[in-house]
Amino acid sequence: QLQASGGGLVxxxxxxxxxxxxxxxxxxxxAMGWFRQAPGKEREFVAALYWSGSNxxxxxxxxxxxxxxxxxxxxxxxxxxxxxxxxxxxxxYYCKAAESVVQLQLxxxxxxxxxxxxxxxxx
Length: 123
What we know:
By secondary structure, the chain is mainly beta. It has one helix at 101-106; strands at residues 2-5, 8-11, 16-22, 31-37, 44-50, 57-59, 67-72, 77-82, 91-98, 111-113, 117-122. The strands form 2 sheets. Strands 2, 4, 5, 6, 9, 10 and 11 form a 7-stranded mixed beta sheet that branches. β7 (67-72) and β8 (77-82) form a beta hairpin. The chain is globular and about 40 Å long.
């Protein structure tokens, strides 16, 4: 089970920190990531990393340099730090676990979704 939290209303240029708590099973070998879905748009990949092993992080181009994905294995939590937010970052943000970053981004295989958390950026 994945539980996302931390959304809210923030002014453009501000920061927000999202959390995704994993429970109920081990995701140790999984890739964890964040997606978002704005009204009237398709859900899109935002950022990802692996629970263990590689420290490589993955980002969509539009958030690179502004967002940071990280993990705290002891707390079974993945974070998305959002800095310098823009109105176009407004969306419902979801966390997802999949067996690899490729499957996380493209679908297929075993995957788990958390419920969404709303992020609204005012201009």
